[in-house]
Design goal:
The chain is of the alpha/beta class and 401 residues long. It folds into three domains: 176 residues, FAD/NAD(P)-binding domain; 122 residues, FAD/NAD(P)-binding domain (3-Layer(bba) Sandwich), CATH 3.50.50.60; 71 residues, Enolase-like, domain 1 (2-Layer Sandwich), CATH 3.30.390.30. It is built from eight helices and 26 strands. The strands form seven sheets. A five-stranded parallel sheet has the order 3-2-1-7-19, with helices on one face. Helix 7 packs antiparallel against helix 8. The longest helix has 16 residues. The radius of gyration is 22 Å and the shape is globular. The protein starts with 5 loop residues before the first strand and ends with a helix. Flavin-adenine dinucleotide binds next to helix 1, strand 2, helix 6 and strand 22.
């Protein structure tokens, strides 16, 4: 058994900070370091595509910890990038040249945005992951530009909605047949598309970007059907890659993120992972998954810490029902479970036109997911039902009650 005197948490955002808090709550009294490459204190990302982008919130509202950090007795190492990991020596090397020793480690390095392969170096093209990204886009939107959003996943759709709420001309471009088709399936995706179109966002689905045009600054985007979308600002929101390059060659097994077992333990003893970076086997769905949602980062941080500090053989599996929310215009979309486009979809309550509905995803009679538009209370009950491996019939009763 590894004696835990020093724990290093790498990644100083939601999962990393919560891991530090759970470690101290578990009465760990040894040395604790939180290493993060951003210079800001840990902050919350969801408002970056919503309130911050629209200029309604200033960055000081985003602090993930309102209390002092002193009580945590943590060595807060901000602006420090981990560049490699030596699992034999149990040391993490930082870009500054410093080396941090550890007995136990929580990997919480999350993800970074992907760019398009043909994305040129033109002014006016942005991606959104960090506070600095959000403030840069917000400043650009203040000039009242025409906006093109490439990628209609959650972040892209939220950026498009926020820009439209600012009164801007917005075009959203998506390679799949509808927005959010991959996560919610095309039928629910179509509802999201119509909600955007009803409010004036132009949506091009099933279209790829052929080229960006402009001399120093982008002035238009050419689509693969020959359409030219005029724009002064482009936000590329085509997805996230797990931030694992610093782990290559370390012996920590990688597979679309950090490969973990059901307990969130990695292939190296005494090293666990949590949040957007963790790819773990979820026994509830009998498959591996990597979840990029806020609630998962918090719940996994708690569980990964429990695994790290557990006596050998006592760690428990992280059986979880993923959960998310997404605010677009005045619509609160909430989802639970892990649906696939091939699942049976039943609209159990409400209608697409009213933008108030509950849709259920069933697989061989079992409830595997649910999404609600402006119907918050039912989702918690449906989440519990999925956790109990409940059936679609029971879900229908909940949704219709
Ligand atoms: C704009 C935006 C809006 C969102 N909105 C919602 C929402 O409405 N609902 C929802 O459920 N979820 C939302 N999310 C997702 C949610 O914020 C993420 O799931 C959550 O931030 C994951 O936390 P994390 O700590 O695992 O990873 P991250 O937040 O990605 O944090 C990882 C940290 O590690 C740092 N890091 C990376 N590599 C290194 C390294 N080598 N050395 C040191 N530090 C490193 C990163 O810079 C970062 O600070 C949103 C995300 C974004 C970006």
């Amino acid at each position: 058994m590894i004696e835990m005197n020093r724990i290093a948490v790498v990644g100083a955002s939601l999962a990393g900070l919560r891991a530090v808090e759970f470690i101290r709550r578990a009465k760990f009294e040894g040395q604790l370091a939180l290493i993060g490459d951003e210079t800001h204190l840990p902050y919350d990302r969801p408002p970056l595509s919503k309130e911050v982008l629209r200029g309604e919130w200033e960055p000081d509202r985003l602090a993930l910890r309102r209390k002092s950090y002193d009580d945590l007795n943590v060595d807060l190492m901000l602006g420090q990038r981990a560049v490699s990991l030596d699992t034999d020596a149990r040391e993490v090397q930082l870009e500054s040249g410093d080396t941090i020793s550890f007995d136990g480690m929580v990997i919480a390095t999350g993800g970074h945005v992907c760019g398009l392969p043909n994305q040129p170096q033109l002014d006016g093209i942005y991606t959104l992951r960090t506070l600095d990204d959000s403030l840069a886009i917000r400043a650009a939107l203040a000039a009242k530009p025409k906006v093109a959003v490439i990628g209609a996943g959650f972040i892209g759709a939220e950026v498009a909605a926020s820009a439209q709420q600012l009164g801007l001309e917005v075009t959203m471009i998506e390679a799949l047949e509808t927005p959010l088709a991959q996560s919610l399936g095309p039928r629910v995706g179509r509802i999201v598309q119509e909600a955007h179109e009803r409010r004036g966002v132009r949506v091009h689905c099933g279209r790829r970007v052929e080229a960006f045009r402009g001399t120093d600054r982008v002035d238009s985007v050419l689509l693969d059907d020959g359409t030219t979308v005029e724009c002064d600002v482009v936000v590329v929101g085509i997805g996230v890659s797990p931030s694992v390059s610093w782990l290559e060659g370390s012996g920590v097994e990688l597979e679309d993120g950090v490969r973990c077992d059901a307990t969130l333990a990695t292939s190296v003893p005494g090293i666990v992972a949590a949040g957007d970076v963790a790819n773990w086997y979820n026994p509830l769905f009998e498959e591996r998954m990597r979840v990029e949602h806020w609630t998962n980062a918090v719940e996994q941080a708690r569980h990964a810490v429990a695994t790290l500090l557990a006596t050998p053989g006592e760690a428990k599996p992280f059986e979880s029902v993923p959960m998310f929310w997404s605010d677009q215009f005045d619509i609160k979309i909430q989802g639970v479970g892990w649906p696939k486009p091939t699942d049976e979809l039943i609209v159990a309550r409400g209608t697409a036109e009213s933008e108030k509905l509950i849709a259920l995803y069933g697989r061989a009679g079992r409830l595997v997911g649910a999404v609600a538009f402006n119907q918050p209370p039912k989702l918690i009950q449906l989440r519990m039902l999925i956790g109990k491996r409940g059936g679609v019939d029971e879900a229908l009763e909940i949704a219709e009650s």
